């Protein structure tokens, strides 16, 4: 997308301005993020926002914007999506409110309790909201065949055995509809803190989901486990007490079969991502985590 000497996110802002005439000015770029970076922008009236690319179609992002308005009305710390702009058939830009706060550093048991409480705020938000047609979690990756299986098939005998075990969990996939608002990529990089409270759950650029909010916490567990394996607990300094608390919360709050299906989903998703791009230690970390979730 980048051209004329502009970086990718600056180009995104340039195209948004060209299509909408909103006159956004780039004032910086985000240091952290999970969907390809973000441009920090200022409106002509001085308001500050963030511009990011979405990974899902424009219709899903517009439904997500509506769901976030419902969440905001219930006091959840989520950004208003001020503009959702389809720049081309495959490129969607989101201009969202810039929330205050910093990314967490020092993820211990107390902080995990704070994050879980914020996620609990999404419970039942979609009850009585038939106009918000959000996708549900697609467990097709646990079926007999999926393009997501290829890296596991090719990596090692151990990953192939794990895949066979994960596929058996397809029958455990929950069929009862849930009405929570679900963040599809809940990581510590997508959380902001201010004065000890969660001031922002951001980066909904994969689209919001309708389902069980605890599904998002399993992704957070995978994210924290990866960081905890890095020197000094990674950039967010993840502590063992934080991991232990989050796993305890999940085992206490989620039916065992349902939890295994969530765990299996994220195992397949994460291994599909890390096997082609990460080193052996990171891949084996995720295989270990996947095997542990089957117990």
UniProtKB/TrEMBL annotation:
Pfam families, sorted: APH
Occurrences of domain Aminoglycoside phosphotransferase (ranges): 58-235
Molecular function terms, GO-annotated: protein kinase activity
Keywords for the protein's UniProt record, in alphabetical order: Transferase
InterPro entries: Aminoglycoside_PTrfase, Kinase-like_dom_sf, Tyr_kinase_AS
Protein name: Phosphotransferase enzyme family protein
């Amino acid at each position: 997308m980048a051209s004329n000497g502009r970086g990718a996110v600056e180009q995104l802002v340039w195209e948004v301005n060209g299509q909408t005439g909103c006159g956004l000015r780039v004032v910086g770029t985000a240091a952290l993020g999970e969907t390809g970076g973000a441009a920090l922008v200022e409106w002509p009236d001085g308001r500050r926002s963030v511009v990011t690319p979405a990974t899902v179609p424009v219709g899903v992002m517009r439904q997500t914007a509506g769901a976030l308005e419902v969440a905001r009305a219930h006091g959840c710390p989520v950004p208003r999506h001020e503009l959702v702009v389809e720049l081309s058939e495959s490129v969607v830009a989101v201009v969202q409110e810039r929330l205050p706060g910093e990314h967490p550093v020092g993820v211990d048991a107390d902080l995990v309790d704070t994050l879980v409480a914020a996620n609990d705020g999404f419970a039942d938000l979609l009850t009585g909201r038939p106009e918000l047609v959000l996708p549900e979690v697609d467990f097709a990756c646990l079926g007999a065949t999926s393009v997501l299986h290829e890296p596991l098939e090719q990596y090692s005998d151990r990953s192939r055995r794990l895949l066979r075990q994960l596929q058996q969990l397809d029958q455990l996939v929950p069929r009862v509809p849930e009405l929570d608002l679900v963040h599809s990529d809940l990581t510590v990089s997508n959380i902001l803190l201010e004065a000890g409270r969660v001031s922002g759950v951001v980066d909904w650029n994969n689209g919001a989901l309708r389902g069980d909010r605890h599904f998002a916490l399993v992704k957070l567990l995978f994210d924290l486990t990866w960081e905890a394996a890095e020197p000094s607990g990674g950039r967010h300094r993840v502590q063992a007490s934080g991991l232990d608390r989050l796993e305890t919360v999940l085992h206490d709050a989620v039916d065992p079969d349902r939890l295994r299906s969530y765990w299996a989903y994220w195992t397949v998703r994460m291994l599909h991502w890390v096997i082609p791009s990460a080193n052996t230690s990171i891949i084996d970390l995720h295989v270990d985590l996947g095997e542990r979730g089957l117990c």
